[in-house]
Specification:
about 290 residues, Rossmann fold, 2 domains, five-stranded parallel sheet, globular, disordered C terminus
């Protein structure tokens, strides 16, 4: 291994949680670097309703943890860190602290910062090269408006996000025509964030294996505000709200489906799915212990 290869690979997540292109780039470099480090600034994510600095940090941590969990699904170990809220400062601090051989910079097209609205990608690239190789992994929110044949679906799921029925339905939709998915998982009191991260990463990995584009992350506990914000940021073609079949749902009790339909002309569907096998096994074990 050369001197350059003894250095780590740095993944920088600016506002977004990566995606299939980022995963592909990491897998192509597997074994070329000493380790993989995932970092994110505490800035506003591209979707989700956040209200204070504390939630900004939680959102950044979620982006890091989901990305690390997806990498783990493909046998890639990584470590993560949450950085300064200012993207430009976070990027330069991360490079200074870890001295990576390469930085995979996952960011929206035309990301800008500061009063002069400087281009973030070009600014960071100029400051890290040639000592550190710089690769922009672009994320374009308007991809769905460029490809008229592609349907961009917003999936709203927390407890059901890893349900095999839901994953299968997403695959079936893609088989019928090109789709890309943005998955938002509003936080819930009775589901830990570790479980949400694990289940979301499992679903993203399954979609990536089927070569389906998707991204997602845990969001603000209020599902309506999370959906409203996502609709405002993305050119959504349809919304899927997922709950378990045959069970009471707080979302349905508060008429989430009806409220979302009132704020968009796009198709809004409620789909019911069965429990994931792990959840069924856990429920049976709990009942047996009572």
């Amino acid at each position: 291994m050369s001197e350059a290869e003894k250095r780590p690979l740095l993944i920088f997540l600016n506002e977004v949680a990566g995606g299939r292109k980022l995963l592909q780039a990491v897998r192509e470099r597997e074994g070329q670097y000493s380790r993989v480090i995932v970092v994110a600034p505490q800035n506003q994510p591209s979707v989700g309703q956040l209200i204070d600095a504390g939630e900004l940090r939680e959102a950044a941590r979620a982006r890091v943890e989901v990305t690390m969990a997806v990498l783990s699904e493909f046998g890639i170990d990584s470590v993560g860190e949450v950085m300064d809220p200012e993207s430009w400062l976070a990027a330069t601090d991360a490079v200074r602290a870890h001295e990576p051989g390469e930085i995979l910079f996952s960011a929206l097209y035309d990301s800008r910062f500061g009063f002069t609205r400087r281009d973030l990608v070009e600014w960071v690239k100029e400051r890290v090269e040639p000592d550190t190789r710089f690769t922009h992994i672009p994320v374009r929110l308007e991809d769905d408006s460029i490809r008229l044949d592609l349907i961009h679906t917003l999936v709203v799921a927390t407890k059901t996000v890893a349900a095999p029925d839901l994953v299968q339905r997403l695959k079936e939709r893609t088989a019928a025509g090109p789709h890309r998915y943005t998955i938002v998982c509003p936080r819930a009191d009775d589901v830990s964030e570790a479980e949400i991260v694990r289940d979301l990463a499992s679903t993203l990995a399954e979609l990536y294996r089927a070569e389906i584009d998707a991204t997602g992350q845990p969001m603000s506990p209020d599902p309506f505000l999370a959906v409203k914000n996502a609709i405002e940021h993305y050119r959504i073609n349809e919304v899927l709200i997922s709950t378990f079949a045959g069970e009471s749902s707080h979302w349905l009790e508060e008429d989430l489906v009806g409220r979302v339909r009132e704020i968009t002309e796009k198709q809004v569907q409620h789909i019911e799915v069965g429990r994931a096998p792990t959840a069924v096994a856990a429920a049976v074990a709990e009942e047996g212990g009572q």
